[in-house]
Amino acid sequence: MNAPDASAGDELQQLQGLRAELARSQQQVADMAAAQEEFLRAVSHDLRAPLRHVTSYGTLVREVLGDLPPEVLRGAEVQEALGFLAPMDQSARRMGLMIDGLQTLVRASRAPLRLQPVPLGGAIAQARAALAAAEAGRGVEWRIASDLPTLQADPTLLQELLVQLLGNALKFTRPVAHACITVSADAAPAGQVAFTVQDNGVGFDPARAGSLFGVFQRLHRETEFDGVGAGLALCRAVAQRHGAQISATAVPGGGCTVRVCWPA
User: Fold this and answer.
1) How many CB atoms are closer than 10 A to CB 13?
2) Whose CB has fewer CB within 10 Å in the chain, the N or C terminal residue?
């Protein structure tokens, strides 16, 4: 009887060791996530003050130059100085949008997760209503499937994800004569549900898809499309908080398809 008892004791000891190792690993992951959130919070908060100085003093410089006598104001050097202020203002506004993006990411990562059944069709309708200004004056064809699933989700965070996805589809179909955006259910493994948002816009180089959901990652020039590249990073953060996965495929000039796979 001693040998079996010893074997069982060894197995129990190994199991306890594995559980302790798993707990340490989970704690390390939690600590890293907390440190990342704290870093983003500090950066997004502490950059506000110097940014305000840049924007306010730029305005003051423009006012001072505007008070110069007309003959001096028309001089080449003063006009050159005024020309320098324009890109400075533009960069300051862009930095402000980047800080806003960081703060949104922090809020999405730290907000309490209040899960409840959310019919995706209704959430899509709300997101479209929030994007009415971006769609104004355009003849966008929407194809919203009637069999969209109900998700166990935080309604507020899900709404942020959908506004970003549909907003991107609207933005990148802007150059297309007949824009078409499709939202449909998709096949998913057992225990999951999936949906896709597909557009016929400009698409992107599939070789760069790996960086698409990174913070401040852009696949198009700023002169072509607005934004700072924080929207899809927010989508990934929201998806990860729900245990969901998000991916994208595209063809240059052939549109983009974003697939979201959600725990059922």
Assistant:
1) 10
2) N
Domains of the chain: 1-110 (1.10.287), 116-263 (3.30.565.10)
C-alpha–C-alpha distance, residues 58 and 50, integer Å: 12
Structure confidence by residue, pLDDT tens digits, 193-251:
999 999 999 888 777 766 777 766 665 566 555 665 678 888 999 999 999 999 999 88
Which contiguous run of DSSP H or E holds residue 157? helix 155-172
Name residues whose C-beta falls within 8 Å of residue 115's C-beta, 6 or more positions apart in sequence. Answer: 152, 153, 154, 242
Q: How many CA atoms lie within 13 A of 129 on its CB side?
A: 7
How many other C-beta atoms lie within 10 A of the C-beta of residue 264?
A: 13
pLDDT tens digits along 149-182: 999 999 999 999 999 999 999 998 988 989 999 9
Reported pTM: 0.69
